[in-house]
Design goal:
This protein is of the alpha+beta class and 162 residues long. 25% of the residues lie in helices and 34% in strands.
Amino acid sequence: MSSVRIEPMNEADVADVLAIEAGAAMSEEQLRGELARTWARLWVAREDGGGVSAFLVSWHVADEIHILNVATLPERRRHGLARALLEHVIDIGRSERFRHVLLEVRRSNRGAIALYRAVGFFAMGLRTNYYTDGEDAVEMVLLFDPTTGAVTAHDDEVRLEH
């Protein structure tokens, strides 16, 4: 893998992030709104000093982190960029003694679900017809040990197969 830097997203990154996000969940207005929120944390992954190859949008509220969006340039997928972003956020959660990290993912997105499981998430619930096209969302959570901050292993609480 090439050298990857994880940095806070800023206004100069908006065009690159929107190019990754083309046709997906966040508009320019929504992205700029997230940048303005005091509780939002937005991160970008850059390879070898280049532009943005991947990004992650999260909310840090009280003792939890909620991941709203993770996306990678199509040609850079499966190169460890989303994993690097997730591990960065997990490191923050561990060091700041958060209780857990939450996210929702399309039930059909097996690649993302496998990645989330690989870093410690488990399926805790399903949201029926969550997406505008009627697809279900899998609610996933990563738990931290309250004493050590270590990621706590946990089996799925729901079946993902139909």
